[in-house]
Amino acid sequence: MKTIRKLILISTGIILVIIHANAQIFPSELALTFSRTYQGGSARILGLGGVNTSLGGDITSVSTNPAGLGFYNRSEISLTPVINFNTNTSSYLGSSGNTSLTRFNMGNLGVVVNNTKSDQVPGGWKGGSFGFSFNRINDFNNEIFYSGTNVENDYIDYLLNFADANDAELGDFYTLDMGYYTFLLNDFSIDQDTGDTLAMWDSFVEFPTEDSPVRQSERIITSGSQNKWDLSYGGNFNDRFYFGLGLGIVTVSYENEKYYSEQRYPESILNNYTLYERQIVDGVGVNANLGIIVRPINTLTVGINYTTPTAYSFTDEYETSMHTVWNASADEFYGDDPNFEGDHLEETFLDPLIYTISTPMRLNAGISYFFNKSGFISGDIEWVDYSRAKVRSNDVDFSVDNQEISGMYRSVINYRLGGEYRMGIFRIRAGFNYQSDPRAGQSDMLLAVQTYSAGIGLRKKSFYTDFAYLYSTTEGTRAPYIIDPAQEIGPTPVADINYAQNRLVFTVGFMF
Q1: 9 falls in which pLDDT band (50, 70, 90)?
Q2: Given this model, what pLDDT does residue 334 score?
């Protein structure tokens, strides 16, 4: 049977984990993690649901549609701190759990240097502006916990099936080796009728039943971020046609720690065991950004933005360990083997893996209608084909992984809608952002992310301040291991996880 890998999806700082865990996160799965970014920027744009393709005159234009820099007629500097509140609730085998996490970070900072011509200067060319900005486009800081009692199967069942399915021998797979050296597994068994030794994997630990239940739990802690540095230029022709281009550098720092444990019933020879995993991924990427905005009439603007695929280079480090704790009855069961007494720890450190990932291009289109000076309404649509991500390495053949990417993921349309109402120097905003489920062949919206936002602002001649509140929700599932239905020992246990994120965003800016 083919080994089933796990898939991790991250969006808006939320970890969406489905199917198999307890193995290194493969680059083919990280390709989606680092492709599915969220809209960064100022509190003004975030309060509008992230719409920005056809709007100009905001620091967010530096990293989204640089044509918006053509709207500037003065220079500007701004900074945007963010507070994230993550709340995750889980349901696993009839038990519920929850976690919460609060983090402060810098969401955006930037400067625009304006060089436009006076309206008194003849000609259609009005000049333009250079912009430099920093944006956080993924926040990986999060924590998930679930726990429940299983009476049908456990992680040892998974290991035994994995060993048999792969005709494994000691030394073939580090996961099995750790189970063997901590006494969870044996690479032989005894025929009860003949006493002969059989060449197959086995375990002396009792399998889960109603009389011998297993308490299972897992805590997943992730940290790090994905940040984008942009240098862009936007120009203005006759206040009707705006163009822009920019260069982006993206840095990634990602760490994932998992603690999966099983607690046996009091009479068991095994008290508990814990599987620990830690993966650290660091990388840097580069892309380019092109865009135009057209104003066919004074109250209408239309924009298009193209972002090239991002070419990343990554270094991936992974370590794992198995720690078992045995009850006193284990000595009686196994005899007076001095090597077996007490608890046991086995660790594995894999060599760092170096590879490249090309994440897919993005194409945005937007339209904005202005109600003279009373406000506006704006909408964006975004096309992304996640199946086009590619993984490459000089040391590893990722052809199979790239085929899996093409089959598992699909192209999607994401939507953003927002509006602003103006009352003198004050602004009131609201918006909605929808990121579609990236999985191929799925009819549900399990991994779709919905974000509702609202904001207020104050605009003076040389100073402005904005505040936005964002609420994001989505759902995911998590399985600590996979059970082959042919084993007939119950279904794969799955945790249903609901994710909610609250973001408070504050921007202060100065014009000069």
Answers
A1: very low
A2: 53
**Would 509 be classed as within a structural domain?**
no
Q: How much of the chain exceeds pLDDT 70, in percent?
A: 88
Strands (E), 298-326: 300-307, 310-326
Residue that the structure tokens 């709007």 belong to: 55
DSSP lists the bridge partners of residue 240 as: none
Q: What is the CATH number of the domain that holds 399?
A: 2.40.160.60
CB 32 within 8 A of CB 438: yes
Q: For residue 148, what are the contacts with CB-CB under 8 A and spacing of at least 6?
A: 92, 93, 94, 95, 215, 216, 217, 493, 495
Host domain of residue 335:
6-504
pLDDT tens by residue, 97-117: 999 999 999 999 999 999 987
**Predicted TM-score (pTM) above 0.85:** yes
The arithmetic mean of pLDDT across residues 290-304, rounded, is 97
Q: What number of other Cβ atoms are within 10 A of residue 180's Cβ? A: 20
Residue 142's identity, in one-letter code, is N
Whether 1 is in a domain gets the answer: no
Give the CA diameter of the chain: 103
Chain centroid to Cα 137, Å, comes to 10
Q: Are 286 and 308 in contact (CB under 8 A)?
A: no
| Average pLDDT over all residues of the chain | 89
Q: Average pLDDT for residues 237-251, to the nearest whole number?
A: 97
Place of tokens 């924590």: 143
On the question of pLDDT at 42 being above 60, the answer is yes
Please give the Cα distance from 46 to 430 (Å, whole number): 9
Q: Are 323 and 343 in contact (CB under 8 A)?
A: yes
Tell me whether residue 510 is in a domain.
no
Q: Is the pLDDT of residue 2 over 60?
A: no
Please indicate, yes or no, if residue 45 is contained in any of the structural domains: yes
Helical H segments across 248-381, by residue range: 329-334
Beta-carbon contacts of 323 under 8 Å, excluding residues fewer than 6 positions away, are 182, 273, 274, 276, 343, 344, 345
Under a CB-based contact definition with an 8 Å cutoff, are residues 109 and 134 in contact? yes
What are the tokens at 457? 């602002």
On whether the CB atoms of residues 429 and 51 are closer than 8 A, the answer is: no
DSSP string, 128-183: EEEEEEEEEEEE--EEEEEEEEESS--HHHHHHHHHHHTT--TTS-HHHHHHHHTT
Q: How many domains does one find in the chain?
A: 1
Q: Rounded distance, CA 72 to CA 77, Å? A: 12
Q: What is the pLDDT of residues 298-345, one digit of tens each?
A: 999 999 999 999 999 999 999 999 999 988 765 555 555 545 667 899
